[in-house]
Amino acid sequence: MSAPAKSELERWIAVRQCEGREVEIIADEAERAALAERFALVSVDRLSAKLVLHRKGEDVSANGQLQAAIVQSCAVSGDPLPAKIDEPLSFLFVPEREDYEEDEEIELDEAQLDEIEYTGDRFDLGEAVAQSLALAIDPFATGPDAERVRQEAGLAEPQKKSPFDALKGLNLKE
Length: 174
Hints:
The chain is an alpha+beta fold. The chain contains three helices and seven strands. InterPro entries: YceD.
């Protein structure tokens, strides 16, 4: 398996130091700039996450809250569009499975869908938070000028017509 790419928000946590541990992640200016570039945002003005970790054997659950202030581009006009993100976080870090081949297709049951595999004796909690930020961004967010820009570009939706509009011009009093 190839080594994972370096995260913009690395926060490595040792599995043996997890039980009941409270972790607060606050992205510094350089990390926020790198995340903005990664996720094609104008800026990430604030990013923090508070999580509580619990360990059961080699599995570690992390639950908490993500809060961020971002500026993204309006999906229609491209204008800067500020947005606030306040999302619950829930992760389950599990040891990497070795019972399948790298290119083998595997099926996951519902309980496994939120699992994040780790190798060795630690995992990157910061990367999980960064990926959660990406999932919380509305890719189709529009600003106040979006409708005007749509109309100017000829992309406005045509007026919805009633099925009775065709009858309006008929003279039915004969």
